[in-house]
Amino acid sequence: MKLxxxxxxxxxxxxxxxxxxxxxxxxxxxxxxxxxxxRALRLLEYNGxxxxxxxxxxxxxxxxxxxxxxxxVEVEAAMLPNLLPDLDxxxxxxxxxxxxxxxxxxxxxxxLLEDEANYLPNANVIAVKGExxxxxxxxxxxxxxxxxxxxxxxxxxxxxxxxxxxxNPTDGYDPDVDYDALAGQTLVIEATPTPHSEILNSVxxxxxxxxxxxxxxxxxxxxxxxxxxxxxxxxYANYFQHQPYLDDQVSQEGYDVVSVGTVHTEPMGLYxxxxxxxxxLGK
Length: 283
Description:
The chain has helices spanning about 1-25, 35-45, 80-85, 95-100, 115-120, 135-145, 150-160, 180, 195-210, 225-230, 245-255, and strands at about 25-30, 70-75, 90-95, 110-115, 125-130, 165, 185-190, 215-220, 235-240, 255-265, 270. By secondary structure, it is α/β, with parallel strands linked by helices. The strands form two sheets. The protein has a six-stranded mixed beta sheet. Strands 2-1-3-11-4 form a five-stranded mixed beta sheet.
């Protein structure tokens, strides 16, 4: 009897060692910018994959991970799809997943997705220099981006990977704007490719063109250029970031950049690469 109990205890210990050893080899990539890294880590914590320091909050990093046996790899958000072959899993913004798929990278369905309570506060905003917040040109841009046309385009094009957050869409125009006074003007806006530039070029350019306003869309593939360019006047507006990211940028860098409206949100997802399911995480 004692021998049987000893054997059972030994077997349990071996199984535990095997589990810890397996977890020690698991690499999970996350975005390395402040707000998105915290968001990715909270997705993992919410689903019981790891535990975070209770005081980490909106600025959690891998240093706040209390769980042993999982290696968190911090990577620039736009580069995560390219590094998937070197990772077991990655937590990615769905807009970068769309970019990667459009570029021919094969990515399967997400194994986990953020819930509404987490992705709604991270809706993407239109941002301009503070002094332009109430300008008619800004109001014209906001009305076009918060239009029913854009809402329909998002629903028909992205099938849930991008979600409109506009509850009362416009017809594309603001009734309080003097569009005749804006005729002939050019508005330069910087945006990341998918879905931001796609939305702008596919829908918003045409809406503003009806009022003889030229929207010049400049594609930017990183997160570092857009806010300083708006702050310095190189661009009139940008459309690429969520509010927590903008708040952090303003706090850290002192940019005079403000949000003037929200358009859509992109849930984050956990994607498998070397691992095709959650079994390596004990799920």
